[in-house]
Amino acid sequence: MKKILLILIGLPALVYSQNRIVFNNNSYMVIDNAANLVIDNQLPNALSTLGTGGNIVSENEMDVVKWNIGSNTGNYVIPWTTQSGIKIPLSITKTTAGVGTTASFTLSTWETTDVADMNLPWPTMVTNMNLPSAANGSLFAVDRFWHINALSYTAKPAIELVMNYDPASTEIGINNTITETNLLAQRFNTTLGNWETYKLFGTNDAINDRVTGIVVPSADFFENWILVDKTNPLPVTLVSFDVNCSDNGVVLNWTTQTEINNDFFVIEKSIDAINFFDLTTIQGAGNSNALLNYSYTDDSNTSGIAYYRLKQFDFNGQYEYFNIEAINCKLTDNGFYTYPNPTNGVFQLQFNAPLKENAQLEIYDLRGRIVLSKVLQKDINSYSIDLSTHNNAVYFLKLQCNNTIKNIKIIKQ
Fold first, then answer.
1. Burial 141-171 (b: 16+ CB within 10 A, else e)
2. 115: left (phi > 0), else alpha (psi -120 to 50), else beta?
3. N or C: lower Cβ tally within 10 Å for the chain?
4. Which residues does residue 400 pair with via DSSP β-bridges, in sequence order?
5. Which of 281, 240, 283, 236 is nearest to 260 (CA)?
6. Domain map of the chain by residue range?
7. DSSP string, 334-378
8. Worst-scoring range by mean pLDDT, 94-108, 135-149, 290-304, 318-332?
9. 80 contacts 145 by C-beta, under 8 angstroms
10. Span 331-413: which CATH code?
11. Which pLDDT belongs to residue 213?
12. How many C-alpha atoms does 303 have within 13 Å on its Cβ side?
């Protein structure tokens, strides 16, 4: 059977004046060297196939199909094919119009070329392949990216995707650790700067080498996608876990950025950092993509150093530990604490008894630079501190009084 090969080389854009482009009987089009195929027809059948189908080979982020869909709705199919001849069409069902009559979709897909299966090169807007469970999650992802962008829409449309992939070992095997029946869609959130492990999209259809039913709401549209083994992302991304002294005991605060199937937390305590016991259980949020703050106060009387650690359980009974934090809240005449901590910048330094001597207060940033220095007069019970003009970061408060030095970590967020 004869193949029609149309090679687009070195053209910044190529516009077809015909009403439709029809691929018949397995004909081919190759887009190369950062060329654009521009389809200036809003209808879904402006690009279609007949007979045994058709093939568009465009294995680079900059080899683009630009479809001027505007406010039209319907099912749009890009008949993509790999360089080895495997058909991997992308189906986009545009379910809402969006706002932008002259708006368009720009679409590309490419197999990554790194022989170690580390998904290189990344798309332009992607800064990492990090997952909470791994410094680099590339070996859990198919060696292919999809770029799906809605341009010039003042309000994005809602869409539903079907993403086909090449089941060959070069894309899902060799160094990768992937169970094909676990593959789901995942996208890079440019606002958060990471892959959304709390949001895995679609339904696995490994029999037909695809993921179906990838629903993307209009208010939640990001452009770079991979297919990932759903068992890899861990349930919780922990932002911080801190312990601080207060009048009522030891206050434990922790914040999560994302949660997947998070059942509950257990706070464990120890006096030797070896033997821990359960102190309390705190219910988790299940699934969340927002910052969540948790707090618990341990009012038990502990003399000397106490050690705390956080243990997280998912609904399947799997668990993970986070870092151990140590604190000594044994009070003296000049015992003190801060609140709130974490803080938005303004917080109180509170003393358990009036200062008997003048005290030197200093606050340092992580580079050891003094950002605040103040002599506190004796007999005061509290002092207000304002770091609102400083960057959100970790600071260290140092208080020197009567040859005694004490330190507290301050988190500004």
1. bbbbbbbbbbeebeebbbbbbbbbbbbeebb
2. alpha
3. N
4. 360, 405
5. 236
6. 5-229, 234-328, 331-413
7. T-EEEESSSBSSEEEEEESS--SS-EEEEEE-TTS-EEEEEEEPT
8. 318-332
9. no
10. 2.60.40.3080
11. 94
12. 0
**245-259, 280-294, 316-330, 384-398: which has the minimum mean pLDDT?**
316-330
* Tokens found for residue 36: 């654009």
Question: Reading across the β-sheet that carries 370-376, which strands appear in turn?
Answer: 370-376, 359-364, 394-401, 404-411
Backbone phi, then psi, for 206, in 5-degree steps? -65, -25
Token pair recorded at residue 165: 């992939």
Per DSSP bridges, beta strands 14-15 and 336-339 are unpaired
| C-alpha to C-alpha distances, 311 to 187, 214, 331, 340, 385, nearest whole angstrom | 28, 33, 28, 24, 33
Phi then psi for 172, rounded to 5 degrees?
A: -120, -5
pLDDT of 79 = 96
pTM over 0.70: no
**Bridge partners (DSSP) listed for residue 375:** 360
Whether 261 and 316 have beta carbons less than 8 Å apart is answered as: yes
| 25 Rama sector, left if φ>0, alpha if ψ -120 to 50, beta otherwise | left
Nearest to 148 by CA among 160, 138, 166, 165: 160
Phi, then psi, of 290 in degrees rounded to 5: -120, 160
Q: How many residues are present in the chain?
A: 413
Closest CA to 371 of 361, 359, 381: 361
The confidence score (pLDDT) of residue 265 equals 93
Q: How many CB atoms lie within 10 A of CB 6?
A: 13
Q: What is d(CA 141, CA 347) in angstroms, rounded to the nearest whole number?
A: 44
Q: Which residues pair with 77 in a beta bridge?
A: 91
Record: fold of 234-328: Immunoglobulin-like (2.60.40)
Cα torsion 182, 82, 164, 94: sign: positive
Angle at 225 between CA 224 and CA 226, to 5 degrees: 140
CATH fold match for the domains 234-328 and 331-413: yes
| 205 torsion bin: left (phi>0), alpha (psi -120 to 50), beta (else) | beta
Among candidates 252, 353, 342, which has minimal Cα distance to 306?
252
**Closest alpha carbon to 25 in 2, 8, 6:** 2
